[in-house]
Amino acid sequence: MPTILIIVPVNNTQFNETIYNAVKPFMAPDFDLIIQNIEQGCPCIESRYNMAMNTPYVIDLAMRAIDSGEIAGIFVTDMDMTGVDQLRELTTIPVLGGFQASAFTAMMLAQKFSIVTVSRSVMALQEEHIRAFGITDNFASIRSVDMSVTDLSNTDEARRRVYEQSLRAINEDGAEAIILGCTGFVNVAAYVQNELLAKHGIDIPIVDPNIAAVSYLELLIRNNLHQSKLTYCVPPSVCNPY
Question: How far apart (Å, rounded) are the C-alpha atoms in residues 97 and 84?
Fold first, then answer.
């Protein structure tokens, strides 16, 4: 049975159980799931500094898991993809972050999407992803709910704020789909999607990055696909401790 490893790229277990329980029901029965967090670095990813600090620990955890020979794919549960590009150079199993899977899911279902993310500190960083992936024509806006990642365990408040900002993105920015800009928004997407339909008759996709990424990983694994080694070249051995 192929096993997907979810790496939570922060030094606490706050989201492990909730992410596992949210994702597992959407997985095919012939796939297994493991979730682990790093034990060093920062407690959340809300800046480039946090990414830089936590990337080495994400790489180390991933490579130790790959060496076990039991892992078929890795999802780093982070919209800003801490360590993802680096891991893609080091392995031939598929590795994903949350952003690409969410954005391209939204683009399959709508022409323009908005991001509803956590704090103001990540907005420019996530806008950089839009430019890097060449999808600016599909991007309507990015809005913040002004919550720290560590506050997202308050699901009711997260739902309320995501709903409000999603409605504004639709009415003011022309969004036709919404992606949640943080993998800490667990059990939020379906609620917001249902509320928009029930209260306003607005029927649009709200993309949960955890579910989207794991679903993409299943597709890649089934089709025996992984990142191009022409794009993600193996580092020279002199520079590669793995």
Answer: 6
